[in-house]
């Protein structure tokens, strides 16, 4: 795919991460977003270890490190008020940050990384 010119429509998290992946594959990428300035839209997100590992590989480790946490426990909840504690002692949870942030932050990090390449 080296040298292939690709247009990515949408500069949200999915579009920006897709653009980073395409750049890593050697493509020339143009990202098109209709919103001129990104503001706070939507809710916060959790970036779990598998996504954290991917974003680290795409050069975003420093940003994740700044906001990430390493929780030891979490809790699963169901509609009928059932709850179950979940221990996060796995090696994936220990070795990769779980980040809680606003989705716009992730898009901004990706955009900066895309622009620098």
Give the radius of gyration: 17 Å
Number of helical segments? 4
Average of per-residue pLDDT values: 78
Spatial order of the strands forming the largest sheet: 3-7-4
CATH topology: FAD/NAD(P)-binding domain
Are there runs of 5+ residues with pLDDT below 50, and where?
none
Secondary-structure element order, N to C: EHEEHEEEHEH
Topology:
Blueprint: E1 5-9, H1 13-24, E2 28-32, E3 44-47, H2 49-67, E4 68-69, E5 73-77, E6 83-87, H3 91-95, E7 98-102, H4 103-115
Parallel strand pairs: 1-2
Antiparallel strand pairs: 3-7, 4-7, 5-6
Helix pairs in contact: 1-4
Describe the structure.
The protein has 117 residues and is of the alpha+beta class. It has one domain: FAD/NAD(P)-binding domain. Helices cover 42% and strands 26% of the residues. It has 4 helices and 7 strands, in the order E-H-E-E-H-E-E-E-H-E-H. The protein has helices at residues 13-24, 49-67, 91-95, 103-115, and strands at residues 5-9, 28-32, 44-47, 68-69, 73-77, 83-87, 98-102. The protein has a 3-stranded antiparallel sheet with strand order 3-7-4. Helix 1 runs parallel beside helix 4. The protein starts with a strand and ends with a helix. The model has no long low-confidence stretch (mean pLDDT 78).
């Amino acid at each position: 795919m080296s040298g292939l010119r690709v247009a990515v429509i949408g500069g949200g998290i999915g579009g920006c991460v897709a653009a980073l992946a395409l750049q890593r594959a050697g493509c020339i990428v143009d990202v098109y977003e209709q919103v001129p300035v990104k503001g706070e839209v939507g809710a916060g997100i959790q970036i779990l270890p598998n996504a954290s590992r991917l974003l680290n590989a795409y050069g975003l480790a420093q940003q994740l490190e700044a906001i990430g946490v390493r929780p030891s426990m979490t809790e699963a909840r169901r509609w009928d008020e059932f709850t179950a504690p979940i221990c996060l002692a796995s090696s994936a949870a220990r070795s990769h940050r779980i980040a809680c942030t606003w989705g716009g932050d992730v898009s901004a990090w990706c955009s900066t990384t895309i622009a620098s390449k």
